[in-house]
Amino acid sequence: MVNFLSIASLSRPELLPRIENVDATTFAALSLEVFRYQAVHNPIYAEFLKLLHVNPLDVGRAADIPCLPIALFKKYDLRSGGEWSPVRTFTSSGTTGQTTSRHLLRNESWYRQNARRAFEAQYGSLINRPILALLPGYLERSGSSLVFMADDFIKQSNHTDSGFFLDDQKTLHKKLSRLQNETGPAPLLIGVSFALLDLADKFPGHFSRCIIMETGGMKGRRREMTRTELHDVLKSAFQTDYIHSEYGMTELLSQAYAPRDGFFQPAPTLRAFTRETSDPLTLRKDSKTGALNLHDLANLDTISFISTDDLGRVYPDGAFEVLGRMDASDTRGCNLLY
Questions:
Q1: With contact defined as beta carbons under 8 Å apart, do 94 and 219 qualify?
Q2: Burial status of residue 332 (CB atoms within 10 A of its CB: 0-12, 13-18, 19 or more)
Q3: pLDDT tens, 161-210?
Q4: E-strand spans in 192-298?
Q5: pLDDT at position 52
Q6: Among 121, 180, 254, 288, which one has the highest count of C-beta atoms within 10 angstroms of its own C-beta?
Q7: pLDDT for 80-113, tens place per residue?
Q8: 265: helix, coil or strand?
Q9: Under a CB-based contact definition with an 8 Å cutoff, are residues 248 and 215 in contact?
Q10: Contact 141, 92 (CB under 8 A)
Q11: 316 phi and psi, to 5 degrees?
Q12: CATH code, 108-258
């Protein structure tokens, strides 16, 4: 490991409560604290900084923190803070023979807490809200962070109609139809794109009171389509004005949600930046399309600063769009082509 021990950094016990309470006013300063911690306590990241000839003491702005290429989740078991044993390993979906990403989880409660906070920041309490999860292609394999999150939301909701629906679309349709005419928190139907399209084909209905949320993902089951095209089909079939979107990935412990039109609002622990596609070390200073860099402070125990293969735009208020994938990057389960 590169010797950065001269860097004054907070300890993990000191950082955890600050991350729990981070907001827009404290995010930038806390990002620098997490950066200093991981520069010392993550050997892969320390070596990465050394190869870039970056002295962590010279990084004075959160926007200037170097981001680790996301592909390294496929090659290394990334850890910050020593050789701790994971309680769970999240893995990405992929085609046969494809190397998948691995994200080690140090504490399940930490993930649940952050996922709940991200959702409830935009949609309100999970308690008593019907959560209906349509996630074929994820349920049938182990290691899906999306299934883990949905399972926790279902348990938190404590609602008799909450649950997973693998192939029983008829029962799902009946529940949505009944919930449409009931009072209480708006039901959430969260589903992978191809499964929502299947439901739209076989069981359309009037579900304007429901939150219909797509997580992306055709998984080879249907032709790829733009998010706008997908949303138009679903809006027509379910007679609703908006289709919601969730942005998450194996390599993140935080999520972002777009209540309408694909403008994602990040969790309190997440921020997006754009970099030049031709120069991975140069950030864009406008709202034009670039490759997305993500700062996920919830990833304290792995790596918080990630250079993704997604293309997008980031706006002054912190919202961002996801506009596709960079050329030559691997196809992912959450991919939507544009």
A1: no
A2: buried
A3: 999 998 889 999 999 999 999 999 999 999 999 999 999 999 999 999 99
A4: 211-214, 244-247, 256-258, 265-266, 270-275, 290-296
A5: 95
A6: 254
A7: 999 999 999 999 986 545 789 999 999 999 999 9
A8: strand
A9: yes
A10: no
A11: -55, -30
A12: 3.40.50
**Tokens matching residue 255:** 């999520």
**Crossing angle, helix 193-202 and helix 227-238, to 10 degrees?**
30
Structure tokens at 274: 């754009």
Burial (Cβ within 10 Å: 0-12, 13-18, ≥19) of residue 259: middle
Residue 98: partners with Cβ closer than 8 Å, 6 or more residues away: 330
CB 124 within 8 A of CB 102: no
- Residue 42 in tokens: 């993550």
Please report, as a single letter, which amino acid is at residue 217: G
Q: Could you tell me the two tokens for 231?
A: 């949303």
H helix intervals, the chain: 12-20, 27-41, 43-51, 108-123, 145-157, 169-180, 193-202, 227-238
